[in-house]
Amino acid sequence: MAEVFFRLRITFEKGGSLRWLSHLELARAMERLIRRAGLPYAVSQGFNTHMRFAPGPALPVGTAGMQELFDVWLCEYVNLRHALESLQGAAPRELAISAVGYVSPGAKGLQATHIYERYSVVLRAAETNAEDMRERLAQVVAQGELTVRRRSKDKTYDLTSAVVSPLLVEVVADGAADGTNIAADAADAADCYVVTLSLKASESGSLRPEYLLNAALETFELVSVTRSALADEPPCPSI
Amino acid sequence: MTHETKPGRTLWETVAPLLARIERPSRYSNHEFNALYKPEASYRAALLYPDTYEIGQANQAIGILYDLINGLDDCSCERAFLPWVDMLALMREQGISLFTLESMSPVRDLDLFGITMPHELAVTNILEALDLAGIPLHADQRDESHPLILGGGPGAFNPEPMAEFFDAIAVGEGEEVTCEIIDVHLRARARNASRRELLEALAEIPGVYVPLLHEEGRVITKRVIQDFDACPVVTAPIVPFAEVAHDRFVIEVLRGCSRGCRFCQAGMLYRPVRERSADTIVKAVARGIACTGFDEVALSSLSTTDHSQIEQILRRLNHQLSGTGVGISLPSQRLDAFGVDMARLVAGEKKAGLTFAPEAGTQRLRDIINKNVTEDNLISAVQQAFSAGWRRCKLYFMIGLPGETDEDIRAIAELVNRAYAAAKDAVPETKRGQVRMSMSVAVFVPKVTTPFQWVGQIARAEIERRIAVLRGTRLHKGIDLKWHDPASSLIEAALSRAGREAAALIEAAWRGGARFDAWTEQFRLAAWEAAAQQVGLSLNELAEHEYAVDEPLPWDHIDCGVSKEYLRAEYERALSAVTTPDCSFVGCTDCGACPTLEASVRLGGDSRG
Ligand code: SF4
User: Fold this and answer.
1) I need a labelling partner for A57 at 20 to 30 A (CA). Which of A3, A63, B76, B380 fits?
2) What is the pLDDT of residues A188-220, one digit of tens each?
3) What is the extent of the structural domain holding A125?
4) Higher pLDDT residue, A222 or B185?
């Protein structure tokens, strides 16, 4: 008889100092968090038995996330409210759990479906203004391609497919940022901007918002990069 | 507050941008599960393990004291580690002083700064930490504005090389004495005592060594927990995000080891043997896994498979953890069939690798060092392990042991070849290609409070000659030979039995850039050689120094319980290759630890001897 599993999708935040966790460290922390929460997780069969889980799309070290996703397979049905409360009780503030829900156990993996990423970037820059910054960014995007040198290797990104929303640039007033928790890092709001945009992840390596900024601006201080949402469909044009 | 930050920014806001420029930023990110925060406490302590986060966070003693101090009324305890060289450089450049992880407070603003003295290769890191914290290196340069600098750990048993850098050093097990020290400190603070008055009061506490006030003839006897089974287990230790050295739930199942290997310092330092009972262990593991979420539990001790109830413990844990994906590990391997049986009980289907430590190649030399295993023990353990499904095995040896001849060295190779052949024979023909055997060889470092404390390390040229003897032997192609760097063994030997004169050497080496000496890629013998020359000492002479058995020793004022007479008798038995049995099996052999420390051997929670 085939075993029945329940696939729980956890929505959580990766914030504060924990945005410095690597993808691997974060996955391990989530695994431990689930065990601490006392959920009836399923265990893989075979030589090296371990919890059955699947992390969402990787977030670079240093990038925060407001609506990160993580799937875990349970071997018993758990009331969602109970699951949420147990997870919340086991999580530090910097990995706050915001929602849980069941998805079909056989559904495609998060990394394949949730390829639309919304980003907010907070930065400080002098001798520019929101309009100027937006224009410079738009010029970079208009070039259609961007080549970035990382670890002494060049990589070219196709911006026409990767940038899926218009760019929004706002001046942050009074350190309020954009309502996310990133404001904490932007204590003094002078010359502080928030750039918002949506990107589409690609299997061959995803574009990072910093790359666009590096290409558009000569000098700026990056305050924080936050992935504010992950979605399985492109943003509607009104954003 | 004395943060050296830009006005209006917290220390975190100054540090966060640096994290984008360094390796492994999660070393500094804090907020792990079970980290404790007591911002309201009026007495604030920091504990530092003088190495990086991933080495230090694995340290059990720090975890125990962290839990304990945070459990005291109105007291908080935070952690500090030495930032890795990339972060160190940035902090120096930006004038950021050593800070604690939990509240990101500068360490020098706290009341107590406790530092582990783990081994000789960490001494320069201790100076680096003090200096980074902005605290004067020398105890006699500190005043009321500085935290109390407290040392402890294995290094306390020969404190002299580091004595002038510490205000006080706790000798032995820290669970009780740490609370007493804090209590005395609080009282001294309440009556506005001067630093000197504080030190005087600390010197009154049994087990506390105050180097500045030490008087000839005073002896500091190590502290020991008598009822170890009743000593609370830390079931909610901090769960690191970064991958650390022992990334699992660790429970200390027994303390001490009285097998009596004559080269082994730990075997003398932690006597008598005291076990936690099977019930305590099984219960604590259930709680520990629930509180931490770890997927592995390690039963730790110097000789876990010697626990009188080990079989029961493993069976009960196997039962309790079955179906949860949580594994059990036994860090130390007993070299006999029983050891392999126990390993088999926990390994299930995953048989990573086994480690055995025969230490010497011939029975005569193993008798000299009191390593009570025979060649047959090794061969049958290997046979059993490989026929049970293991494919990898690591063997530990030492060269330069007292009484060693070239024949003993060549015998190491013969022994390993035989073990390798036995491993191959025990494996089905089609699987023989998977058999891996490695041997790891270190140069013997004589340590204080062992029967070999009087002997010197063999001379450097002789070490090289003996290494060549081993290299000249014929090893099977499948055997991988690894060396523990002989140059760092020289520093270990130069410092392990030295007196107060070594302080200048350590300080000069640190000023010359030595730090992270335990990290092969950071270790620089040249910095130590230059330092030795500068202060008029010779590393070789220090390492090779031979003490007469009747002359006073620099560590005579520290009493670990095992008497000097016993060590001397053991030394003499060693010279005539006579072995001594384990007192926890055959009864007391009069080492002195139990009467001196008013403790006794306790097995499975019962008292004996
Ligand atoms: S005093 Fe006797 S029983 Fe106690 S540790 Fe020493 S040898 Fe063992």
Assistant:
1) A3
2) 445 889 999 999 998 888 899 999 999 999 889
3) 115-231
4) B185
* Residue A103 covered by a domain: yes
Record the tokens describing residue B574, joined without a space.
């060693």
Nearest residue CA, atom 3 of ligand 1? Answer: B588
Whole-prediction pTM value? 0.93
**Least confident window among A181-185, A212-216, B69-73, B404-408:** A181-185
In a domain, A239, yes or no: no
Q: Same domain, yes or no, for A46 and A154?
A: no
CB of B373 closer than 8 Å to CB of B366: yes
Contact B30 A43 (CB under 8 A): no
Sorted by where each begins, the domain ranges of chain B are 4-221, 228-501+537-597
Counting atoms of ligand 1 from 1, which one is nearest the CA of B609?
Answer: 3
The verdict on the CB of residue B601 being under 6 Å from ligand 1 is yes
Q: How many domains does chain A have?
A: 2
Indicate the burial class of B222 (C-beta count within 10 angstroms; 0-12, 13-18, 19 or more).
buried
B51 Cβ neighbours under 8 A, 6+ residues apart: B81, B82, B118, B122, B125, B516, B518
Q: CB of B594 closer than 6 A to ligand 1?
A: yes
Is residue A129 domain-shared with residue A214, that is, in the same domain?
yes
Instruction: Write b or e for each residue in A64-79: b if 16 or more Cβ atoms lie within 10 A of its Cβ, otherwise e.
Output: bbbbbbbbbbbeeebe
Cβ within 8 Å, pair B325-A50: yes
Q: Are residues A162 and A191 in the same domain?
A: yes
Is the CB of B567 inside a 6 Å radius of any atom of ligand 1?
no
pLDDT of B560-590, one tens digit each?
A: 999 999 999 999 999 999 999 999 889 999 9
Which residue, A91, A112, A133, sits at the end of a domain? A112
For residue B290, give how far its alpha carbon lies from the nearest alpha carbon of chain A (Å). 5
In this structure, are residues B149 and B115 in contact, taking their beta carbons and an 8 Å threshold?
yes
The Cα B237–Cα A79 span in angstroms is 29
Q: What is the pLDDT of residue B117?
A: 98
Beta-bridge mates of residue A54: A71
Question: What are B106's strand-pairing partners?
Answer: B99
Q: What is the mean pLDDT of chain B?
A: 94
Q: Which residues contact A179 (CB under 8 A, 6 or more apart)?
A: none
Contact criterion met (CB < 8 Å) for B10 and A187: yes
- What's the CA gap between A160 and A153, in Å, rounded? 22
CATH architecture of B228-501+537-597: Alpha-Beta Horseshoe (3.80)
Mean pLDDT of chain A: 88
Highest CATH level, class, for B4-221: alpha beta
Q: Minimal CA–CA distance to B439: which of B375, B484, B391? A: B484
